[in-house]
């Protein structure tokens, strides 16, 4: 039996976004597209023998034009570029993006149920990996939904970064500088677990002993507190790999508050780059990830999900993580 073509495959063949294909098929009167692009899309539809899902087309007749974007850390600057790109991608596909506080929705489940069961949004992006509330995930199924930065879950479409590669890159940088005792400051959730896996892989490949993860959390204040406790208790690491730049802000402050120097006594490398990283003193070395690309990809996948539901995982591997070296990382004293 021939596998039915999907809208995303049409978009890929035509070299356009799934949202544009969807709007063309639905004869969106606000869509302005060149004749050559329209012809390319129609040729791809014919070549793949694509037929739109009838139930999805029926749902689109009552669309709100809104996509929900539920984040657990809405004030974290790490997510600014992702939200900005997601907003742009949503607009390109003919939608408005509504930012939601996932933590507040988890505490007020009736609000969340009204949102999804009342179909007040056409689709939902949900930051995964922070809550074990299965009922909330079940409610999310009431509308087309995509989980991002989550492990693959049956029945859901998921989109995430290559966290393992980012943490491995950060750890390998410190190993190349000569560090042998490197600690990992992590947090709760799947993405932190994957980053710890990347750290462990780099350490074991170099025949070094990984440290147990230090639970620093996603915010600067708890990360600072745990860093100060670690150093006061005689922690022996000469370098830290930190789960995110916001957490690294706290680790950075904790090292200095403990009377040590960066990178003289302790080197620091974080996952993700953000606006404040180069302005710390010393500036923060990072394994930068493509957060902007992730935001756009998540919206494109969600728009395709609205048109033709499916499950499975999408991992953003290109562009790969990039090491941006600043002054917070250097060779350990013993290697100088």
UniProtKB/TrEMBL annotation:
HTH lacI-type domain residues: 5-61
InterPro entries: HTH_LacI (IPR000843), LacI/GalR-like_sensor (IPR046335), Lambda_DNA-bd_dom_sf (IPR010982), Peripla_BP_I (IPR028082)
Pfam family, one: Peripla_BP_3
Keywords carried by this UniProt record: DNA-binding, Transcription, Transcription regulation
Domain of life: Bacteria
GO MF annotations, alphabetized: DNA-binding transcription factor activity; transcription cis-regulatory region binding
CDD domains noted in UniProt: HTH_LacI, PBP1_LacI_sugar_binding-like
Protein name: LacI family transcriptional regulator
Annotated organism of origin: Microbacterium pseudoresistens
Higher taxonomy: Bacteria, Bacillati, Actinomycetota, Actinomycetes, Micrococcales
């Amino acid at each position: 039996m021939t596998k039915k073509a999907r809208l995303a495959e049409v978009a890929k063949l035509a070299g356009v976004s799934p949202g544009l294909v969807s709007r063309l098929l639905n004869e969106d009167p606000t869509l302005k597209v060149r004749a050559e692009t329209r012809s390319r899309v129609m040729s791809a539809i014919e070549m793949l023998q694509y037929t739109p899902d009838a139930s999805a087309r029926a749902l689109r007749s009552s669309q709100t034009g809104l996509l929900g974007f539920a984040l657990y850390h809405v004030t974290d600057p790490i997510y600014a570029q992702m939200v900005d790109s997601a907003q742009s991608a949503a607009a390109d596909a003919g939608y408005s993006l509504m930012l939601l506080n996932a933590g507040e929705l988890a505490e007020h489940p009736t609000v969340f149920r009204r949102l999804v069961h009342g179909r007040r949004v056409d689709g939902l992006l949900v930051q995964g990996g922070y809550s074990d509330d299965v009922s909330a995930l079940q409610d999310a199924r009431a509308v087309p939904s995509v989980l991002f930065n989550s492990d693959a879950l049956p029945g859901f479409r998921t989109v995430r970064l290559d966290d393992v590669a980012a943490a491995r890159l950060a750890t390998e940088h410190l190993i190349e500088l000569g560090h042998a005792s490197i600690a990992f400051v992590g947090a709760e959730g799947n993405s932190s677990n994957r980053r710890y896996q990347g750290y462990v892989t780099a350490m074991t490949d170099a025949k070094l002993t990984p440290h147990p993860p230090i639970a620093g959390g996603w915010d600067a204040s708890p990360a600072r507190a745990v860093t100060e406790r670690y150093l006061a208790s005689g922690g022996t690491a000469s370098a830290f790999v930190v789960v995110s730049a916001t957490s690294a802000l706290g680790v950075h402050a904790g090292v200095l508050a403990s009377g040590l120097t960066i990178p003289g006594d302790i080197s620091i490398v974080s996952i993700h780059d953000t606006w404040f990283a180069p302005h710390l003193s010393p500036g923060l070395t990072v394994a930068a990830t493509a957060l902007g690309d992730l935001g756009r990809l998540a919206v494109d996948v969600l728009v395709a999900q609205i048109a033709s539901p499916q499950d499975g995982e999408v991992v953003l591997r290109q562009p790969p993580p990039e090491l941006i070296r600043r002054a917070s990382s250097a060779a350990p004293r013993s290697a100088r």
